[in-house]
Amino acid sequence: MKRAQLIGIVVAGVAGIAAFGLMNGMVNQKQETKTREVVINSTEVLVAAKDIGLGEVVAEHHFTWQKWPLDGVRPGMITSARSSQMHELAGSIARAPIIAGEPVTVQKLIKAGQGGVVAAILPSGMRAVSTRIEPRTAVGGLVLPNDHVDVILIRSLRSRSGKEDFVADTLFRNVRVLAIGQQIETATGKKSADTAGSNTTATLELSPRQAELLALANSMGEITLSLRSVADLNSDGKNQTGNALNREETNSVSVLRYGAKSRAYGVN
After folding, report:
1. 179: nearest Cα among 197, 162, 204
2. The pLDDT of residue 235 is above 90
3. DSSP state of 119
4. Of 53-62, 70-79, 168-177, which has the strongest mean pLDDT?
5. What gap in Å lies between CA 54 and CA 98, rounded to an integer?
6. How do residues 242-263 score in pLDDT, each as one tens digit?
7. Model-wide pTM > 0.85
8. pLDDT digits (tens, 9 = 90+) for 107-119
9. I want to staple 195 with a disulfide (CB 3.0 to 4.6 A). Which of 86, 141, 173, 264 is the partner?
10. Which residue has the higher pLDDT, 23 or 163?
């Protein structure tokens, strides 16, 4: 092999090795990471330090301050600018359950002296009315607070012949149960209401007119609660009123005999 050719081969080999090393270095080169600090405007809002149950009387240890994005602060939230309000809220009653970490608002609490627990959880314009129940008329004790029920009246009617018949009519549909006895919240893991002893009443959320009708119905016959499925809560409007007490006789049909109106009772 000629000397010139040997020199060319050596130069080409050295160039190839140099090029391989250069490319390998470029591939494995670590890209420089740049960290930029972004300052987010935030404030501190009052949140629940632990779960607060419906009707629970709160104290200062139920609350804590937590950083919150300033853009996420909504009306009603309590910020550190009103830090004294934590002390002012002590002794209030929870109008609704508050989970740990959830912002505390004045709408979720009612101060002592402004009403009892039921008055605190009752929506504006509605009334709390109690009716007598027994396990057999309250789905065997399975009706619990915050369930929705239909209210049925069973009463007797006497026909013109003197025969007594019993009729059943739905007074109200989709009514919320506020309490069973003095139980206003379902205990954890509890699947039924204790209807023994003093727990023989159901307190219902009714409109003022419905409250009058229920008081009248209690003097006319027996009240039965029919539990609604959760899937059916939106099938009827809430607190629908039937016309059972707006008719002379229910579950009856009109019959014309020789041009005169008469009634047949107990017709299903």
Report:
1. 204
2. no
3. H
4. 168-177
5. 8
6. 665 654 444 444 444 444 444 4
7. no
8. 888 876 566 677 7
9. 141
10. 163
- Residue 176 CA to residue 238 CA, distance in Å, equals 8
Asked whether 255 and 262 are in contact (CB, 8 A), the reply is yes
CB 169 within 8 A of CB 244: yes
Give the pair of three-digit tokens for residue 180: 């069973």
**Average pLDDT value for residue range 145-161:** 85
Q: Please name every residue paired with 39 in a beta bridge, in sequence order, or none if there are none.
A: none
| DSSP codes of every residue in 194-240 | --STT--EEEEEE-HHHHHHHHHHHTTSEEEEEEPPGGGTTTS-TTE
Give the H or E element holding residue 28: helix 3-28
| Gap between the Cα atoms of 233 and 29, Å rounded | 64
- Among candidates 207, 222, 202, which has minimal Cα distance to 143? 202
- 60 CB neighbour count, 10 Å cutoff: 12
Contact 78, 104 (CB under 8 A): yes
Which tokens is 230 given?
Answer: 């959760």
